[in-house]
Specification:
The protein is α/β, with parallel strands linked by helices. It has four helices and eleven strands. The protein has a six-stranded mixed beta sheet, with helices on one face. Strands 4-3-2-10-11 form a five-stranded mixed beta sheet, with helices on one face. The termini are far apart.
């Protein structure tokens, strides 16, 4: 018996502000949850009172989105490392409207540009957004480019050459206030 789509497959793309938003990417957790999502990530998202979680791809297993959906509704895109089942269930990019803001979500591994931030930014060149959330590089980033916030939360599970694991928070109202949260 098919239970129907998962909670994260039914998440709306229009949200009222003010809203606290959790931002995650590059969790790289496999189908068998030998290790789960870090307790620091889960505790901090819950403590921040997030009403929405955005995942910028390289999820690898649906249970990751299910676990995040226990905290708040989840919108996600697939990344270059995601398997076929997630590529079928998720788009490569999407736009969420949060209050007065359009927020673009993409992994950042493909498209026009030499760098990950450039490729992510160019994804929304024909449909301008106020914020571009992306992953792929595992390098946290929060900076403005031509009035658009470029935000990469890094990775809470695979820091690669970074000194810390990380994820992000956005506080969205009349403005978008980004915060990178780093932990050991």
């Amino acid at each position: 018996m098919n239970a129907g789509p998962a909670a994260w497959e039914r998440t709306p793309e229009v949200w009222p502000a003010p809203l606290a938003v959790g931002v995650v990417s590059d969790t790289h957790l496999y189908p068998e949850p030998r290790r789960g999502l870090p307790p620091t990530l889960l505790d901090e998202l819950a403590a921040a009172g997030v009403g929405l979680i955005l995942h910028a791809g390289d999820i690898l297993a649906p249970w990751v989105l299910d676990r995040l959906a226990d905290i708040a509704p989840v919108l996600a895109v697939y990344g270059n490392a995601d398997p076929a089942d997630l590529r079928l269930a998720l788009p490569p990019s999407r736009v969420a409207t949060i209050g007065p803001h359009r927020v673009g979500l993409v992994h950042g591994d493909r498209g026009r540009g030499r760098t990950t931030p450039e490729r992510a930014y160019n994804t929304f060149a024909d449909a301008p957004v106020d914020c571009v959330i992306f992953g792929h590089s595992h390098r946290p980033l929060s900076k403005l480019r031509d009035g658009t916030l470029l935000f990469n939360p890094g990775s809470p599970t695979d820091k690669r050459r970074q000194p810390y694991y990380s994820f992000g928070l956005l506080r969205v109202a009349e403005t978008i206030e980004p915060e990178l949260v780093c932990f050991l």
